[in-house]
Amino acid sequence: MFTQRIFDREEQSRYEIYLQAHDHGQSSLSNTLNFSLVILDENDNAPKFDKEFYSANISENLPLQTMILHFQAIDIDEENTPNSQVEYQFANETNQNVFSLDSKTGELILIGPLDREHISFYEFDVIAFDHGQPKSLSSTVHCTIYLVDVNDNLPVFDQSEYVFDIPETWSHQTPIGHVHATDADEFYGDLYYTLITPETADFDQWPFDLTINGTLYLKTTSVGTYLSHFCHCILIESILLFSH
Q: What is the rounded CA–CA span in Å between residue 44 and residue 186?
């Protein structure tokens, strides 16, 4: 008995064969033999990931030891043998101080702090390989981790102190000067400004006001006792900055 084609154990792993032997007598006699033909497995299939690529959006303040993703690859070679035993590893050592990959389960764990203002996303490849002999087979998948911005940065003024000089005849509604600050957060960087009057001052009598864009101006036609020959406005103590 010989084969007529190449077998594929993953398509069919067992054949039931029936043989008959008979003679050429005047009244032919015969006997039958039944047996099973089992196709032994060879490591001819690489592990295959259940996705073409992996991605996740995570908060930049995600707690350490949080599971981010679960990589899963299936090897269709014979179950419970080295040919189908799958393990996982990073394709290179990049980002291994931030993420940990369980070689048995394929779980991706956060082990290092994140800062979206420093790195906004991570890209890396993961390899799934079997333990087949004489040669291990493997496949690779790409993964991208995007960091979602958290409002974790205070706005910072361009200057530690703003000083503006104006004459006492300065026209009202005319800009005196402009203050500016920046916020490193991506989605919380739109800023607006408000002016806080001194505690001892009457807001209705206070001659200055500030636009939400940071422009200081004189809101009354007369500055009264608040201005002498020149007015010095130090805003670092009188301006609060908010983000929205």
A: 49
